[in-house]
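This section describes the prediction task in plain terms. A model, or a person checking by hand, is given the sequence of a single protein chain and must write out its three-dimensional structure as a string of tokens. No templates, partner chains or ligands are provided. The sample shown here is typical of the held-out split.
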Amino acid sequence: MPELPHVTAILARAGLIETAWFTEEARDRGSALHAATHYLDEGDLDWSTVDPSVLPRLRQYQHFLDEVKPEILSIEEPVVNEIFLYQGRLDRCVRIGGREGVLDIKGPYQAAWQAVQVAMYARCFDRPLCRWTLHLSDERYQLIEHKERGDWSVALAAITIAAWREKHGC
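The expected answer:
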């Protein structure tokens, strides 16, 4: 069986993510921040080794942990939807206020496709899950819960369009 497409690749191929705005610098910063949050969640972070470019956002992540007190259930978990044939890497599975859900860590900017992304991650599980994005800037964090039921319909359309574009070389 060929490798399954990743969630973000599906959304990009369907035209929901504008990748032209992604720079190498932003990608590197995001990777460094994700690694640092991973070590922080595991209790293995040496703050003296943190890249200075991500330190303010990592501090905001620490504020989120201190104030919201999520229970981290999994970190960077590979997920697969075997019915709709896609995969991804979920930033966190968490429990917040007694409610289990998927959480994706983002930079400060919000985009509509992010709700569709977490809907696709949530559908990789055999139970209903809440969906959150955590936006980190240098000055604050913002936790957003995505409740729009139509997000899954958009995800299904994106899966269909991406598969059609792949088949026809578009």
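For orientation: The mean pLDDT is 96.
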